[in-house]
Amino acid sequence: MLRTHTCGQLRREHVDQTVTLCGWVDSRRDHGGLIFIDLRDRYGKIQVVFDPSKSASTELHDLAGTLRNEDVLRVSGTVVRRSEKDVNPKLPTGEIDVRALELKVLNKSRTPPFEPGTTDPPNEELRLRYRFIDLRRPRLQELMLFRHRVTKLVRDYFDEHGFLDIETPMLGRSTPEGARDYLVPSRVHEGCFYALPQSPQIYKQILMVAGFDRYMQIARCFRDEDLRADRQPEFTQIDVEMAFVEREDILQTIDGLVAHLMRSLRGEEIPLPLPRLSHREAMEKYGSDKPDLRFGMELVDLGDLVANCGFAVFKNALAEGGRVRGLCAPQAAAKYSRKNIDELTTYIADFKAKGLAFFRVTPTGLDSPISKFFSPDEQAAIIARFQAAAGDLIFIVADKGPVTSAALGALRARLGRELKLYDPNQMHFSWVLDFPLFSWNAEESRWDAEHHPFCNPVEDDVPYFQTDPGQIRAQSYDMVINGCEGASGSVRIHDPQVQQQVFDLLGIDPQQAEERFSFLLEALRYGAPPHAGIALGLDRWVMLFTGCDNIRDVIAFPKTQKAADLLSGAPAAVDAKQLKDLHIRIVEENR
RNA sequence: GGCUCCGUAGCUCAGUUGGUUUAGAGCGCCGGCCUGUCACGUCGGAGGUCGCGGGUUCAAGUCCCGUCGGAGUCGCCA
Q1: Protein A564 CA to nucleic acid B48 C1', in Å?
Q2: Looking at beta carbons, which pairs linking A275-282 to residues 24 or more positions away fall under 8 Å?
Q3: Residue–nucleotide distance: A346 CA to B4 C1' (Å)
Q4: Which residues from 252-311 of A have any strand B atom under 7 Å from their CB?
Q5: ipTM passes above 0.90
Q6: CA of A36 to C1' of B33 (A)
Q7: For residue A436, what is the DSSP state?
Q8: Integer distance in angstroms from CA A399 to C1' B5?
């Protein structure tokens, strides 16, 4: 070892010891005579003092004078106690100094493009290009450490519950459903490609068939889709599958994991079971399949109250089979000007809502450009339906049912944030159950799997296969954390006939199914146990636990919105030889 | 693919309705001085294709178009 101690480790009890430290120059204060160096490693900072009066030769002091930020040093010296007036209460090591006796510069640093110690980090492009410096920042060091703790706790939890960690291939077969695949060309098989896994879904089901009845893996997954603040093209799932279980077993297992993490990471006891609501209930009350339940402000239906009102927009929407729904923002009337409300109207237009009606609640009724269309009785009924109080601001959307959900769900989330209706440090976990098994894809006039095609239908709903597939509920479950999808899973189909029924509806005929999923279908024919599983988005969990608002901060080497790694320069062109080996020719597209 | 925001010194930013010759500040950097600082102090200095290309104009960092890069979002994400 090049060092006897770490920089953050030394305290008063080390006084008089001779120590050797290694680290980076965090800052220097050169007084001409005395030189102070703050030496930093990932354990902390300590002040090193170079005192010319205490050394025989000037060599040590001259060298200390050449030190610059981010130089890497090895320093030997004596730990000394600071006099009372020189104690720095801001540092855990602030009661002591290391008085340098020997200095070796292990590596000079170029002047860094930014200081790790900066209070005001530079733009992200620069941070990502110089990620090795960015990662020296205490905040990112904390985040990496936290992430390590989470994965350790997760592994320990599943290990204690008898789960086996089994790796599955990264080079797999492209299956056409779902997200766009990242493809890897084969050298040996001309014109053929591997696909990087979108998730280990099929392999983990096959592990169940193989008899490993409790599986977990911290698995890297790849999806070639556009990025978001909480979405990277490669990300990490905590992947879980269990055999001989029902839905309830998965829910309880994950409930236990949540309690374990909350206890270990935050010292909070969380009551179990975690709250559950149905997909239908979530859409009805919150307009979202991942509602933030840290606050209420539920959606309310006004259809019966305004069916015969004087306001044509509401009446017509209902007459055309649509809905009139709204929400009541507590004490927001004075906080939102007409201009602010116009902005909200533009915002919900993204979700296809054609308009946003609003009422300011006054002691005597409703104040709004459209209040003249509503009789005093109707106004009173609306106020009563929302249980509104003077000073509240009511928003109403009249549109097709799903549009009212999407628009009001988005509006609710935004108002909750803007009105600070919740404590941002609170963690709220809940289950959303019974998603629809299929959703109608109007563009392509076909049914799509809502979750994936291996998800078991609720038994009572099986007759709907013939009559109304949109009614079939899935034996699925999503975990929602603070309005984010934190995990998603289902009871799987273990009966090849049910599986074929699902494929039929998705428009995958037996021959296509054989081609695409033969290995899974074949496995299901050789004694597949009932099984169920779930996958948790590790990056998002770390984000939520640490209060980060973007996923890149919890990933050591993340990619930009255009899926580029600014540090390495990936993706990049390759040699002609490499392409030739892979039987690939690049064709310039005409513009 | 659509919409929105951002790009001025190494970094963070200012730069007015287009008009003061030489585009500023703080931090950082370089040099001098400084023995108890810890956001050290102090004196001096260097550092700019205003992302790039085109256009409008007597005049463009400022207005317009295109483009590149970064961010947010809708679509997309079984």
Answers
A1: 29
A2: A275/A429, A275/A430, A275/A431, A276/A251, A276/A430, A276/A431, A276/A432, A276/A433, A277/A430, A277/A431, A277/A432, A277/A433, A278/A432, A278/A433, A278/A434, A279/A432, A279/A433, A279/A434, A279/A435, A279/A436, A279/A473, A280/A434, A282/A432
A3: 12
A4: none
A5: yes
A6: 17
A7: B
A8: 30
Beta bridge partners of A219: A237
Which two three-digit tokens encode residue A122?
Answer: 């530079």
The answer to whether residues A527 and A495 touch, using CB atoms and an 8 Å cutoff, is no
Domains and CATH numbers, chain A: 12-107 (2.40.50.140), 121-271+529-568+575-585 (3.30.930.10), 295-418 (3.30.1360.30), 435-474+495-524 (no CATH)
Concatenated DSSP letters of A257-268 = HHHHHHHHHH--
Written as six digits, the tokens of A210 are 């193989």
The answer to whether some atom of strand B lies closer than 7 Å to the beta carbon of A113 is: yes
A504 CB inside 7 Å of strand B = no
Determine the distance between A349 (CA) and B71 (C1') in angstroms.
Answer: 22
Give the list of residues 6+ apart from residue A457 with CB closer than 8 angstroms, or none.
Answer: A437, A465, A472, A473, A474, A475, A498, A502
Which nucleotide has its C1' atom closest to residue A452's CA? B78
Q: Which nucleotide is nearest to A26 (CA to C1')?
A: B38
Rounded to two decimals, what is the model's pTM?
0.94
Q: Does nucleic acid strand B have an atom less than 7 angstroms from the CB of A453? A: yes
E strand or H helix that includes residue A338: helix A338-349
Q: What is the mean pLDDT of each run of 10 residues along chain A (591 residues)?
A: 96 97 96 95 96 85 95 97 95 96 96 91 94 96 97 98 98 88 97 96 96 98 96 98 97 98 97 96 96 96 93 94 95 91 89 93 94 95 97 95 94 94 95 93 82 92 91 95 96 90 86 82 93 98 96 97 95 95 84 43
Q: Is the CB of A114 under 7 A from strand B?
A: yes
